Amino acid sequence: MASAGLQLLAFVLALSGTSGILTATLLPSWKVRVDAGSSIITAIVQLQGLWMDCTWYSTGMFSCTLQYSVLSLPTHVQAARATMVLACVLSAVGICTSTVGMKCTRLGGDRETKSHACFAGGVCFVAAGISGLIPTVWYTKEIIANFLDLTVPESNKHEPGGAVYIGFISALLLFISGMIFCTSRIKNSEALLYPSKRQHVSTTQLEGDSAHNLKDYV
């Protein structure tokens, strides 16, 4: 199995990715629009997320409105909701499973069981990373297309917010972490199927010595 240090690094990446995916899912800053107004006093910042729309006024007031109607939302927002929640669930399952399979823990029983758990956790992280990449890329594409559309008025144009970047980076961390865990399982399987040459020579030499000693005894 891969070294405990490499698995620990992958686990830290997975924890960071999981917290980032959860944060991006809840933040209301997927789309941002700054309206300067006639003066700095009337300037406002409009934020739109997956679950709520918020408005921040330069006077310090901050108000949010929940998006209760699902059917009234655009297709990419509905898809982003589903895939981001799925990414959160998969990453949480991956955290639990990989904890059992890590070499530095005493959970999971024998080496083969821990190896399977490590691989299962890696698959969950890879799937979570893909589930997080799809909505962030799609959402960004829709924002850019709407921004470049000349038929859309300036008041309806937005820019990608911080939640999109957080979600994209977190999804990449989850994907990298999952690949490390999956690779550690593959390397472990190869080590079991193809033992090292030195070990093979030592075993052959031991068998030869045993046969020689038995011949002398006879």
UniProtKB/TrEMBL annotation:
Q: Which residues form a coiled coil?
A: none
- Keyword Signal set for record: yes
Protein name in UniProt: Claudin
Q: Which UniProt keywords apply?
A: Cell junction, Cell membrane, Membrane, Signal, Tight junction, Transmembrane, Transmembrane helix
Which residue ranges run through the membrane? 82-105, 117-140, 160-182
This protein's source sits in the domain of life called Eukaryota
Q: What compartments host this protein?
A: Cell junction, Tight junction; Cell membrane
- How is the protein disposed in the membrane? Multi-pass membrane protein
Family (UniProt): Belongs to the claudin family.
Q: Is Iron among the key words of this record?
A: no
> Gene behind this chain?
CLDN20
Q: What does this protein do?
A: Claudins function as major constituents of the tight junction complexes that regulate the permeability of epithelia.
| Cleavable signal peptide | 1-20
What PROSITE patterns does the database record attribute to this sequence?
Answer: CLAUDIN
